[in-house]
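Next up, sample data:
>
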Amino acid sequence: MLLDKGADVNAQGGMFGNALQAASSRDHDQVVQMLLDKGADVNAQGGMYGNALQAASLTNHDQVVQMLLDKGADVNAQGGRYGNALQAASLTDHDQVVPMLLDKGAEVNAQGGGYGNALQAASLTGHDQVVQMLLDKGADTKGRMSTLKTKGRMSTLNVEGMATLCMQHH
């Protein structure tokens, strides 16, 4: 195997930034464990998702998320397209991953990424269970409005209105 022949477990490059992020995004739990055992940096930044935890959170790989958290992944690390792991999980309605991240101290009102924050992401995509989880943890509905760039147009998102509308349809 390449790692046994001296390949750098933390080599950077490509779409995923590093091998750990690539394996995490595809739910290859055995590969993730092997990379972690060989010293992969659980908080390495780069690639389209920002880091391995964001990749696993976006793609709803709860077992991989737990493995990364157990190895010390920074639940509030910023970067990548989705800003942080909580925003990534909230965008894609992962009602198993969201509570895992919140229980590990994910900042519910963290700003950043393409959707502004986790509540905006969950509200925009209509994920009422995730919206309720975030509200229960103190998500700010009166916070900043986010301007999203969608298909070349700019649109403003009223977080309070979106969260309310989402919850009314539940």
About this structure: Confidence is low (pLDDT under 50) at residues 145-157. The radius of gyration is 17 Å.
